[in-house]
Amino acid sequence: MEFYDATGAAVVLPAPPQRIVSLIPSITEILFALGAGPALAGCTIFCTEPALGVAAKTRVGGEKNPKLDVIRELGADLVIANVEENVREHVMALRGWGIPVYVTYPRTVAQGIRLVGELGELVGCAERGREMAAALEAALDDVRARVAGKTPGRVFYPIWRNPWMTINQDTYAHDMLAVCGAENVFGQSATRYPEITLAEVDRAAPDVILLPDEPYRFRRTHQADFDAYPAIPAVRHGRIRLIDGKLATWYGPRIAEALRVLPPLIAGV
How far apart are CA 178 and CA 125, in angstroms? Predict the structure, then answer.
């Protein structure tokens, strides 16, 4: 069968893959949810979910520095990667060895849902993929209906500290927040991951500050960083919230949890 990935590259698979390597943690989780866990031969050191499922899998290094020789030694008949998280030269090296590589790049919640169905087709779990995608689409439609007509909550969503960094509108996390009723206060920034200062956050006046635990591991102690800015509405009203970073950045089955948990934190619905 022939598939086309997010880059437009053709990926030809003569049969459903039996030795898959995932270079993306959220993709690893999707594969297990689809029922393709037994076909997963290897994953990255950052692949943590499902914990019992990945415990027995061969680790092939990190997303940016995978051990290509290990992937080849595993007899991989499919590698799944991502435009942003992985390195193009590594993808090309694997393809040069004759290993099919399917590259993903969802930047919206809707695209993340479609990816579930696409991966189901790719790994021979089409029916399960369609079922999962349909359930997620229903959850997305429900959230959109609930936040429709409501004033968006102005949200600051940092991804790093020292220097402080955040996200603009050309990111999956931005779209997830928007779907859940948020206005990203730095959404119009010219760069995808702009460096900002807390003085700029003060001027942006977010109603809610969400502190995720990845990629930077924000903790309760970091809430004190904002004490010097009592005029920020989120500070004044006690709306600095610690969240699971996977909710905003992992696509696939975790979307259902995100659509349930995030709207009340952002828009109160």
Answer: 31
